[in-house]
Amino acid sequence: MKNLLFLAMITLVAAFAACEMGDLEQEETIDMDALRAEIQAMEDAYAKAQNARDAEAVVAYYADDAVSLGPDQPPLVGKAAILADIRANMAEDTTSGVTTRFEVVDLFADGDLAVEVGKTLRTGPDGTERETGKYISVFERRDGKWICIRDIYNSSLPDDDDDDDDEEDED
Q1: Does 96 score more than 60 pLDDT?
Q2: In angstroms, how far is CA 14 from the centroid of its own chain?
Q3: Quick one: pLDDT at residue 4?
Q4: d(CA 153, CA 131)
Q5: SS (H, E, C) 101-169
Q6: Rounded mean pLDDT of 126-148?
Q7: What are φ and ψ of residue 113, in 5° steps?
Q8: Cα–Cα distance measured from residue 150 to residue 94, given in angstroms and rounded to the nearest whole number
Q9: pTM of the predicted model, to two decimals?
């Protein structure tokens, strides 16, 4: 009888563990189509805010503890530093009628982390493409919402400042 009771307890524990493992596997299954649409919507909102020169709306994309790695500058650590940089860039930008859009090219996700590879397209007022770039954004799901915690970006255009920095930087 003891053996039968012990066997029943083991079976019950194993069944419970299997149910829990099944729940974990279901929690980690990510609908990639839905995630791609959600991330693209975030990129669209970022572009809309950038085109409207609304720095506060742009920075809504980032977590408070985000780190942004832009070209030719030290890392921007925290939302306040990122906001200050966005404001400065908007103040310096004298282009008129240029619009920016972002496109999700590839997306990887597991659990509460997602990595987006994207491209940036800038279009002049006449509709011609003026600049392209690329970026990688890392998102974390916090309280059920995806938010950017890290990003890195740069232009795909060659350096046109004729200062030969590129050659010196490689030494």
Answers
A1: yes
A2: 40
A3: 41
A4: 13
A5: EEEEEEEEEECCEEEEEEEEEEECCCCCEEEEEEEEEEEEEECCEEEEEEEEEEECCCCCCCCCHHHHH
A6: 93
A7: -125, 140
A8: 27
A9: 0.76
**Residue pointed to by tokens 């950017």:** 148
Q: Which 3-state string (H, E, C) describes 23-64? A: HHHHHHCCCHHHHHHHHHHHHHHHHHHHHCCCHHHHHCCEEE
**Residue 116: Cβ within 10 Å count:** 25
CA quadruple 42, 48, 54, 56: dihedral, nearest 10 = -10
Q: How confident is the model at residue 97 (pLDDT cuts 50, 70, 90)?
A: confident
Give the residue carrying structure tokens 């990510």.
Answer: 30
Pairing of strands 62-69, 145-155: parallel
Phi and psi at residue 124, to the nearest 5° = -75, 170
Map tokens 């194993």 to a residue: 14
